[in-house]
Description:
- Helix content is 6%, strand content 46%.
- By secondary structure, the chain is mostly beta strands.
- The protein has a 4-stranded mixed beta sheet, with no helix packed on it. Strands 4-3-5-6 form a 4-stranded antiparallel beta sheet.
Amino acid sequence: MGHLSTHVLDTANGCPAAGMQVSLQRLEPGGAVTLRAVALDADGRAGGPLLDAGSMAVGRYRLIFEVAPYFRARGVALPDPPFIDVVQLDFGIADAQGHYHVPLLCSPWSYSTYRGS
């Protein structure tokens, strides 16, 4: 059965991004609709799927990762404005039965993502 998950790794400190705030939105013709907002657990995960099999639907989605607030909470001195503040990742789900895993690797100065397994 399909589901959507995420995992965030703090590459500056070499650890999971525990406590980072992440929001999931569905992109509708009338605008974005927030489906979930979570604080990541000690492993840098949402504590379960962001969308489970019953909620998966074909469409366009957005993950919003609160990167600068996370690093500030860790005591990192960031410029104002920070180089990377919020990472907004728009992606599509073409197969509601598929597994979509969207990891984020981030530091205050860079990030990367991919469709994981």
